[in-house]
Amino acid sequence: LLSAPVKPLPKVSFAALPPAKLFSGGGEVFLDTDLNNPANNVRLEFRSSPYASFAHVHADQNSFNISAYGEDLIVDSGYYATWGSKYHFNWTKQTKAHNLIRVDGTGQENNRLDAWGLISGFKQGKDFCIMQGDAKMAYFKTPLKQFDRKIIWTRGKDEQLFVIYDTVEVKDGKRHNYAFDLHFNEKPVITAENTVTVSGKKARARITWLQPQKFSRQTLTDKSDFPAINWRTKKEDTQLYPNQWHLYSEIDNAPAKIRFITVIQVGKVGVKEFAPVKSINDLPMIARQ
Fold first, then answer.
1. Which three-class secondary structure state does DSSP give residue 224?
2. Which candidate among 90, 202, 250, 257 keeps its CA 20 to 30 Å from the CA of 100?
3. Do the Cβ atoms of 122 and 128 come closer than 8 Å?
4. Residue of 28, 265, 51, 56 whose CA lies nearest to 162
5. Contact 137, 117 (CB under 8 A)
């Protein structure tokens, strides 16, 4: 067997592959706009997994991340610092450290086999992809009747467009407080009541909320709930673990059923201004140049 000739795998150009791949068993979707050319590629990662939040897995059902042109734009925050530390268990693995929605200040349950999610829909073509996750099973402190997150991507020439459509409904039918959390390596700029921009050296993104059009408050901080500890020195180490930026957009006393419509435009720094975004009959419309 060891002396048998090894047959090389056939060469396949990444350009021949579809833009996205669903791994239904693990509850993951990876989308790449130009996998054959990393310098021009924009990637979105989406997770809603039946593996729940037990052991090494995080409480992050329906979370997403975006990178572009070799830089991280919207990130899965937290570092793999000292295992078992307050930072590890009470930050990195928690919903608050991910790009997700919290209800009444609480997120999904951690270290539970029944706090799971599901990729409930997936369809793609050459220049578009639609994916949907169901994460209502992961919320215990404030039980949910529904948390569907639908992400729609359409290909553009100078910018890539992602529309995120969230529907959240609390079981008790009462009014609640909601937080839409986003995380970044670079400091974002709040440019309007419903718009945030973030830029690296090569990549930039503009996030626009069409619903709600105004939040009760937005809090931006570069501090996590606990410091990241270097396991060798047993001390906080901001050189090894640089501070990341966390934006909490909160709306108070909202109905039991609420939706968020979020438009994310991704492009290169200094190439072209983003096309304007507006809402017509509750649907996002992006003016193509």
1. coil
2. 202
3. no
4. 265
5. yes
How far apart CA 64 and CA 75 sit, in angstroms, is 8
What does the block give as tokens for 173? 């039918």
Cα distance between residue 96 and residue 250, in whole Å: 13
DSSP 8-state code for residue 16:
G
**251 vs 178: CA distance, rounded Å:** 5
Find where tokens 């992602």 sit: 162
Could you tell me how many helices (H) and strands (E) the chain has, helices first?
A: 1, 21
The C-alpha atoms of residue 199 and residue 151 are separated, in whole angstroms, by: 22
Rounded CA separation 101/97 (Å)? 11
Helix-strand-coil percent breakdown of the chain, rounded to 5?
5, 45, 45
pTM (two decimals): 0.92
Secondary structure (3-state) at 284: strand
- Residue 279 has a pLDDT of 76
What's the Cα-to-Cα distance from 142 to each of 108, 194, 242, rounded to whole Å?
Answer: 9, 26, 33
Q: Which amino acid is at 261?
A: I
Burial of 50 (0-12, 13-18, 19+ CB in 10 A): middle
* Cα distances (angstroms) measured from residue 17 to each of 37, 132, 164, 246: 13, 21, 24, 35
Given this model, what pLDDT does residue 224 score? 93
Hey, what are 142's tokens? 């404030």
Q: Which amino acid is at 85?
A: S
